[in-house]
């Protein structure tokens, strides 16, 4: 690969990494669940406005997905609104899209012969942006799968690189954050990061605990990048053909260390009182905000927003 090509690939990955959480609501995954539950409650209560959403699109509301909202922001809402959005390169859009499938298609595809494929774990495209992704996928030559009269795609190869960057950061940096907040003890964090960093032979006698953890975190990230790069190279053929169905972090040489980090987070961080209180308050905030905004859409409906051609942009 020539230097210019490598530079272009790095820029694509970097852009996709910067954008990867752009569609997440406040409070992260718990915020997604709160929004989905709010919509499900509205559907069950037969709200006049909400009930106008076609049945085949209700699933995308009940299981609100930040990945799909992110693609919507990039392609429609930000900058050139309803006219290409941020107008990013098709390669960047492909590298951004971890789940190249709509909610309704995913439901049937995930229960068929492709069950278990990593790109079907969630959905990443709303029906309103399907044609935008279809155009990018065609140009990029993504492997296409047909599910009855619907279509989904195998992941763009660079998705696995973007996903690895995310996995590396949240596993390692979250562990450092847990030490900083006092949720996980120094010895536990130090021991895991010391091994992840390759057991560096450095004199840390003058370091504070925070300085030592920061140093080990930085080295660990570098080692993790190297490990995931090797995993990509070893599975290059499967990745390029669209048959690869794992995350690089799950199969690389540091797999066991990532699993230890996840276990610590699950046992010590996700169950912490601070996080539980945040999720509970966050859920209440999101429900109150969405309930408060609903009358605005009801007013738009009464004033004839359907006639103004706004229906497609909301649905």
From TrEMBL:
Coiled-coil intervals:
none
What keywords tag this UniProt record?
Hydrolase
Is Cell inner membrane among this UniProt entry's keywords? no
InterPro entries attached here?
A: dGTP_triP_hydro_central_sf, dGTPase
Q: Does the keyword Hydrolase apply?
A: yes
What this protein is called in its record is DNTP triphosphohydrolase
- Organism annotation: Mesorhizobium vachelliae
Name of the encoding gene: dgt
């Amino acid at each position: 690969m020539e230097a210019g090509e490598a530079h272009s690939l790095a820029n694509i990955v970097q852009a996709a990494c910067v954008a990867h959480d752009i569609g997440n609501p406040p409070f992260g995954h718990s915020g997604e669940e709160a929004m989905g539950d709010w919509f499900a409650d509205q559907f069950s209560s037969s709200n006049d406005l909400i009930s106008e959403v076609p049945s085949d699109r209700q699933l995308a509301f009940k299981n609100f997905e930040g990945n799909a909202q992110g693609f919507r922001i990039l392609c429609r809402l930000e900058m050139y609104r309803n006219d290409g959005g941020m107008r990013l390169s098709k390669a960047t859009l492909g590298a951004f899209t971890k789940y190249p499938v709509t909610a309704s298609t995913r439901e049937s595809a995930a229960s068929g012969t492709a069950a278990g494929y990593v790109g079907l774990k969630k959905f990443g495209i709303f029906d309103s942006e399907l044609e935008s992704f279809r155009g990018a996928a065609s140009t990029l030559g993504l492997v296409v799968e047909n599910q009855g009269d619907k279509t989904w795609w195998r992941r763009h190869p660079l998705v696995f690189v973007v996903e690895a960057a995310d996995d590396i950061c949240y596993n390692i940096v979250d562990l450092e954050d847990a030490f900083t907040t006092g949720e996980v003890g120094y010895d536990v964090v130090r021991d895991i990061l010391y091994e992840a960093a390759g057991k560096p032979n450095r004199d840390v006698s003058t370091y504070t605990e925070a300085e030592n953890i920061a140093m080990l975190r930085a080295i660990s990230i570098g080692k993790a990048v190297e490990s995931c790069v090797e995993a990509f190279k070893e599975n290059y053929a499967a990745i390029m053909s669209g048959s690869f169905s794992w995350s690089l972090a799950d199969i690389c040489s540091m797999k066991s260390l990532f699993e230890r980090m996840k276990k610590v987070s699950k046992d010590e961080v996700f169950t912490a009182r601070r996080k539980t209180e945040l999720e509970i308050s966050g859920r209440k905030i999101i429900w109150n905000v969405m309930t408060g905004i609903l009358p605005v859409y009801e007013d738009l409906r009464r004033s004839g927003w359907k006639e103004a051609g706004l229906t497609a942009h909301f649905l």
